[in-house]
Amino acid sequence: MRPLEILTLILIAGTLTALFTHKERKIFLYLLFAAIGAMSLQYFLEGQRWQFAFAVYLLPALYICHLFQKTKINFITKGFLSVWFSFSVLLPWIIPVFTLPNPSGPHEVGTELFHWVDSTRLEWFTDEDPNDIREIIVQIWYPAFKNAKMNPEPYLDFIDLRAKTLAGAGAIPEFIPGHLNHIYTNSYKEIPIINSDQLMPVVIFSHGITGTRHLHQAMYEFLVSRGFIVVALDHSFDANLTIFPDGHLADYRSNITGHPDSLNVRTMQMNTRVADISFILDQLDKIQSGKIESQINAKIDLERVAVGGHSYGGSTATVVSQRDNRIKACFSLDSWISPIPQETIDDGIHIPFLFMGRPTWDGSDYPGNYPRLDSLMAHSSNPKYRLIIKGTKHLDYSDIPLFSPIIGYVLDVGSNPAALTVSLINELVHGFLVKHLLGESNDIFDNAIDNDLVYQIQ
After folding, report:
1. Long-range contacts made by residues 362-368, C-beta under 8 angstroms, separation at least 24?
2. pTM (two decimals)
3. Same domain for 147 and 283?
4. Which of 14, 256, 298, 352 has the highest local Cβ count within 10 Å?
């Protein structure tokens, strides 16, 4: 909960106690007015959200009870108000305005957004327009100097549009994600990049099916604050929702359950995703040369490029690592191995490769996921790592565990504390990149693996 929400609830608790216990109601009225004042400040400074509505309407209810039960509050009223107050505390707690972890590195985080069109590729997702060409939204995060006068970027843009599609992806009511407009990142729009004589290594990240570039920002900021440039995209029509600058949308069209030619569709989908990553590499080359204007002009080390991804994004990263020799390292977060073509499995990955994931896929729709991963790893060259993080499930490898302390009851999130899991995954990815992309000799990766929650499969 936010500070003024906490203050308001403390004052409401005091007001409720005074109403129940003090025959002389002056203390009750003083506390009531103080609670109203705190709530007013909360509304104007932090912004109202639906989870706080129980607390808002409790205050006039307390005053009405004070008017009509002047000498003593009866037992039924006490019980009713106590339950009401419990909901006032519970809702903001279980659906909080969460904060992203402090990146904690030496650099601030800048970000910029691009709308790129690949005129060499037709858009096969849009059957209604045979002349449509592929376009994507790409966001870049980079080490920067902070401008003290600027506010950080919101966690999600266009929340009014995204709330419905996010709720649909999670099978939850549409109003629940509406409070996400109050959540901010540690990133600042288009602030100046740091002065450095050294080129900066690059990480390109691919999201999962129904995902979005936004859902891994804790990792992006962690890496960027330590000197990496991170590039993430919305794979149009695979993403939950892609919103272009002129307002037109690419909705989610990748649910092919029951499709008579699903194998061919998945093949085309994978080829499109892989081509998106290679297209981004082409565009980064143009940024480096100055053909595309950006904060990172002439700052990119195109000889030190890694790619990573979560779920389907992990399989995308794996396949493009084999097909595009500009990529020097790959990490995969609880990757869905099934969409990886058999030729990729048989040929293996021959750059540094890190897989980390949940203990088992048994009980999922894809129980053969890890046997297929075993085959990929057997055909791949060292250095390669297969790490299991105890107590994790599929969505632990994103920001989603931060969304609520009870998120595991409604979504595929494990039993570990969110802050612990997010921090551990970030440290493992960072350590792997430092060791195998930057080639630096240190103990960051080994220390991250030496954790009671991590075990390595040889």
Report:
1. 364/394, 366/336, 366/337, 366/338, 368/338
2. 0.92
3. yes
4. 352
